[in-house]
Amino acid sequence: MSTTTSGRTAGTNAKVIGLSTAGAVGGFLFGFDSSVVNGAVDAIQGQFALSKTLTGFAVAVALLGCAAGSYGAGRLADRIGRIKVMLIGSGLFLISALGTGLAFGVWDLILWRLIGGLGIGVASVIAPAYIAEISPRKLRGRLGSLQQLAITVGIFAALLSDAVIANSSGGAHQQGLFGLQAWRWMFLAGVVPAVVYGAIALKLPESPRYLVMTKQEDKAREIFTRIAPAEDPDRSIREIHEAVHADELAGLKGSLRGKSLGLHSIVWVGILLSVFQQFVGINVIFYYSTSLWKAVGFHESDSLTISVVTSITNILVTLIAIALVDRVGRRPILLAGSIGMAVSLATMAVSFMNAAVVNGEPSLPGGWGPTALVAANVFVVCFGASWGPLVWVLLGEIFPSRFRAKALGLAAAAQWVANFVITLSFPPMAALSLPVTYGAYALFAAASFFFVLFKVPETNGMSLEEADTLFVAKKSAKAKA
Which CATH architecture is the domain 16-216 placed in? Predict the structure, then answer.
């Protein structure tokens, strides 16, 4: 390769990496907004004299907004474009941060949480779709993983800002700057990243694939030339047209409907990827970790510090996935992650079979405490290095161009519904039996291995148009059979 060509490639990569990183800022807000409530829950309950049930609903209602936001975002992105939907997401985050921080009572607090959930849902769809559509095939896995990396950094930032605000005020319920309680400032802190996200979105170019789909080829050619000067923009546009034509011959025509229970089979693959990602119980570790740490022997006052450490671990293992995804491929990493999660969750289930009940709480005697602690962290590592980032990568890749945003929106909505189910079901299940609860998560992790083995396609090294062609070819082969 000549020095000129090498320089062009490096320049192209730098531009695309910059654009993808900017697009992934939505993932940061996703993580920040979904986790910032953790430090404020007890203070909110005391401020508005809420029952545990109403407190739980105020926290979980955002997940319903996430499902609605992700479902609507995919369809809206196909109508008005990816960038305009990013701006809508930024506005929703801003309104939620201001409204929640200045809430008068529980019912308007719930409304603002719901609006924040809509913003999270929008970000969960638009970031992976945008990144997939501007990334070259050799970098798409790593760049697609930026979404999950941004989410984990957002979670860490939320937990850290909660800790700083609470400690500087003497507690989340105490008064802080301008006489506002510290818990209000935890939410108001979200105004800054919301405004930054909107400002960044105004500077980003529209997805060239969306422009081709909406017959704006001149704009698409200009953007292809800007972000990939080493490649032929006319060839890229031609490949998109060929993929669209193949979709039309296969009878897709932009609709999600197919013969497999009302949807195309590849849409079901995306939905089940999303459901398995949640049904292994990852959010139990983040939402309900205090009970686990207390059972192992830590004091409740240490739980926030432990959660921050766990979030740092999550960031580091996501970097491992980013380093390997385009070298090893998607399927091998997912398969290895499924095995690791199944074994670690099964170990946690066995550990809690040996728990004693002390003052109504489970307590792990002897070596079972450290065993459960190690298993929980191994589980976080296995998830963070595989199913955490790679599901977002695959959701950006596996769907045909004609309905990528719609299908991604539906799959993301399924993910949020699954998250809601796990979040609400854990307390009663844990009260019934922790071994059964973690055992159930272990079974889902084991089932995810066989699902990937038999149903999930490998998209490593393919352009999005080649992935489209692969799907159409498989669909045609099944039809002939």
Answer: Up-down Bundle (1.20)
